Amino acid sequence: MIEKEDPVISEEEAAQYDRQIRLWGLDAQKRLRGSRVLLAGLGGLGAEVAKNLILAGVKGLTLLDHEQVSEESCRAQFLAPVTAQGQNRAQASLERAQNLNPMVEVHADMDRVEDKSDEFFLQFDAICLTGCSRDLMVRVDQLCFQNNIKVFCGDVYGYYGYMFCNLGQEYHYIEEKPKVVKPSGDSKDGPEPKRAKVDPNETTVVKKTVRFCTLKEALEVDWRSEKARAALKRTPLDYFLLLGMESQKKIQKISRNSERATIVTEHDKTMEVLHYSYV
Questions:
Q1: What phi and psi values does residue 254 have, to the nearest 5 degrees?
Q2: Judging by DSSP bridges, how do beta strands 60-64 and 105-109 pair with one another?
Q3: What does the domain layout of the chain look like in residue ranges?
Q4: Would I find Nucleus among this entry's keywords (predicted)?
Q5: Which residue from 24, 2, 16 is spatially nearest to 102, judged by alpha carbons?
Q6: How far is CA 227 from the centre of its chain?
Q7: Packing angle, helices 257-278 and 237-253, rounded to 10
């Protein structure tokens, strides 16, 4: 990763981001202001993610997409104009994306994300992959996990969609909770309270740490094992439906019989687990 300077919020930026600074604080906005983000895939989901990142006020956003603007993509996303059909999707989305917030450095990259070297990904603080293959997501996630780079992956299938995030081996955060008032033993008037009460007017901040697993670890869970099946009731059925859709999409793209057989086996395992979860 590149060395980061201590970000400074100018008066103009403070006015621009006033509402969100009130929401998550100046320190959080400074971290956003110092972050460089890569977004791969400028479909409908990618365009929405780009808009939110730009309006949030990151330092820089790189739009990476090798595909061309089609009639379908014009209907799915709002950054590429209808007149840009046939042009590169990242380049066509650049002008409208930049106009959302001139304070953010927005760049377009027309290369294939699969062709990028490991060194390319290391220049970013966070990477968002939309509509990418499973193999690519696993590769980038493994690389970023080793280099403390945040990773977000997602895709949409009609009314269904998924999101995976990996924020590292030790992710620290704070949680605000209502303050619990312990019963006092000094009361002489009437019986002592038996249980602690929650005061909705006061809150306390609790520091917590969580470890995120890699995408490879998540995908390699054998849901037919006894331990994993015990967790099926807490796992939404949509998760397995999305796995099945992803496998089906991959099957349709592969022509070699050996690779197709492997993916079909994975697909069948997913459907088998889905059957178990219904029973």
A1: -95, 135
A2: parallel
A3: 11-166, 171-210, 221-278
A4: yes
A5: 16
A6: 27
A7: 160
Closest residue by Cα to residue 250 from 265, 238, 239, 228 = 265
Condensed to tens digits (0 to 9), the pLDDT of residues 42-51 reads 999 999 999 9
Q: Are 203 and 177 in contact (CB under 8 A)?
A: yes
CA angle 52, 12, 9 (to 5 degrees): 75
Between CA 50 and CA 277 the distance in angstroms is: 36
CATH class for the region spanning 11-166: alpha beta
pTM over 0.85: no
pLDDT tens digit string along 162-217? 899 999 988 888 887 777 766 665 555 555 555 666 666 777 888 889 999 999 99
